[in-house]
Amino acid sequence: MKNLRDVPSPGPEAYDRARTALHTAMAEPAATVVRPKRWFSWPKVSVAAVGAAAVAAAVVVVSTSGGSVPAGPSDAAPQAPEAPLVKLASAVKAAGTQPGDASLIINTKFGLNNKPDLYYTIYTDKGEQFTGDSTKSLVAAVAKGDAQPATPYDGKVMAAARLAANGDVEKARIAMITASGNPLGIGLSPAEADKAWAAAQAEAAEMFRKIGKPFPGPKPRPTGKDLENLVNNHLLSNIEHALFANAADAEVRAGVLKLYATIPDMIVGKTKVDGHAALTLTAPPAILDGSTDVLIINADNGLPIREEITSAEAAKRWVVNYRSSRVTLADVAAGKI
Predict the structure, then answer these.
(1) How far is residue 80's CA from residue 86's CA, in Å, rounded to a whole number?
(2) Average pLDDT, whole number, for the chain?
(3) Which residues contact 319 (CB under 8 A, 6 or more apart)?
(4) What confidence category does residue 148 fall into, taking pLDDT thresholds of 50, 70 and 90?
(5) What does DSSP say about strands 276-282 and 267-273: parallel, antiparallel, or unpaired?
(6) Radius of gyration of the chain measured on its C-alpha atoms
(7) Distance between CA 257 and CA 87 in Å, rounded?
């Protein structure tokens, strides 16, 4: 993406179509977490999903590796996540969002050569985004007003997080799961769910046809535990998208923490990062097709610190470090970061 930063972004419609295909064309029902934005790390994705991703440049895989992150919780005994995460969410919301008119997040990724790769993203309170691979390029983008409008998907995940922060967690959970479409038929009657699944499969098949590749389907709509795992896969993907794009917004962050707490078998552990108390959130491997995803957050304010993903297929580890803060666009344009 560093080499492609001058390429115009696809429109929201192309993005939504590609994401729908990515979700519905997967080879197994319990597919790995899917992240739609270029500043995120990804675990293993099935061959069928990779084919779908090739349909549109809106879906981009960014792999990262290296860094020094704990492999899992230092206090790894399973516990109900509701108590610590909901308690932290309440504290985060009560503290409120710091002054400013935008959230800045700086990602440091580690490639196979173990060299850090920085990426800067500003998500404004108006729903615009500025990006850069250095402070210089970010300042230039803001100074020129070179903003990218947030996609409808961005708006939906932010709205769902805010809804959870303000109390209606169950409704927010459904909104978050379906933020990128509803091929799984969540909240629909069995007949409507089957129709939604069939429509998504047909759209994916058409996209494969257009690029001259065989479509690995159609497949029956997942049910039972397979459906539950895929639902929680989508939930995890979407809440982490909201967090990583707009972590410094306290309301969004509080909602994400509450929604994290609704994922069954989530393990919440305690650790320290640079001498400061932190929590490790370990997603159940069943929803990641055997891969592991450990997110480390600040125990006092819930801000993301580090993420480690280990692929079940090749036992490779990807790491991203995060720094989040509130900023004022005028200050950024003046070079004050």
Answers:
(1) 11
(2) 78
(3) 41, 64, 65, 66, 67, 69, 109, 110, 306, 307, 308, 309
(4) confident
(5) antiparallel
(6) 19
(7) 9
Instruction: Say if CB 58 and CB 15 are below 8 A apart.
Output: yes
- pLDDT tens per residue across span 109-139: 876 567 788 899 999 999 999 999 999 999 9
Give the amino acid at 285: P
SS3 64: coil
Give the separation between CA 280 and CA 78, rounded to whole angstroms.
12
| 272 three-class SS | strand
Other beta carbons within 10 angstroms of residue 32's beta carbon come to 25
Structure tokens at 107: 């990602």
Q: Tokens representing 94? A: 């009560």
Q: E strand or H helix at 293, and its extent?
A: strand 292-298
The candidate with the shortest Cα–Cα distance to 307, out of 57, 105, 92, is: 105
Q: Is the Cβ–Cβ distance between 93 and 254 less than 8 Å?
A: yes
